[in-house]
TrEMBL record:
GO terms for biological process: protein folding. InterPro entries: GrpE, GrpE_CC, GrpE_head. Pfam families: GrpE. Residues 1-27 have a biased composition (Basic and acidic residues). Its main location: cytoplasm. It comes from Porphyromonas circumdentaria. It comes from the Bacteria. Participates actively in the response to hyperosmotic and heat shock by preventing the aggregation of stress-denatured proteins, in association with DnaK and GrpE. It is the nucleotide exchange factor for DnaK and may function as a thermosensor. Unfolded proteins bind initially to DnaJ; upon interaction with the DnaJ-bound protein, DnaK hydrolyzes its bound ATP, resulting in the formation of a stable complex. GrpE releases ADP from DnaK; ATP binding to DnaK triggers the release of the substrate protein, thus completing the reaction cycle. GO terms for cellular component: cytoplasm. This is Protein GrpE. Residues 36-45 have a biased composition (Acidic residues). Residues 1-53 are annotated as: Disordered. PANTHER family: GRPE PROTEIN, GRPE PROTEIN HOMOLOG, MITOCHONDRIAL. Belongs to the GrpE family.
Amino acid sequence: MKTDKNSNNKEKTSQEETTVEHERTTTHTENGNEMPAEDSSEEQDTPPANTPEQDLALLQDKHLRLVAEYDNYRKRTMKEKADLLLNGGERVLGDLLPVIDDIELALKNIQTASDVTSLREGVELIYSKFIDYLQKHGVKPIEAIGAPFNGEEQQAIAVVPAPTPEQKGQVIDCVKTGYTLNGKVLRFADVVVGE
């Protein structure tokens, strides 16, 4: 009998578990009908998959924004370039103003000056100040006299017989000084070459 009681207890426990499982998987409505409960193991967090039309709309929106951003960048750089061209020489011209002030002062003093040597010294000071200004901005004179003729920096305006054999092919005189800006020729030197 003892075994019958144990088997009855086991049956009761098994029936209770089945009932609990059934209640968990079904939901009762107000009118008593049973409906299967939603499976909680389904992923509720993932958004529904986009349709091809939605994907196309997203890509078109991204493309439109990218084109607008590029257009704004292009306009901004064009404006910056225009400003640079318009005001690029501001620093160069600003540094030139003290030299102009000295020239104006010299012109005023020429009217009343009686000493020519002091006037000459003043003009030489202005000239040296202007040459320093040019060198500060990368402009350098081309040294020509006594050097061999260089067609990349000089142009021969005359050819004369060389006074000595050593001066053949060399620059004897410089009529107009040439200048370079950071190594690039601004103006060729007009020279006389010995032959």
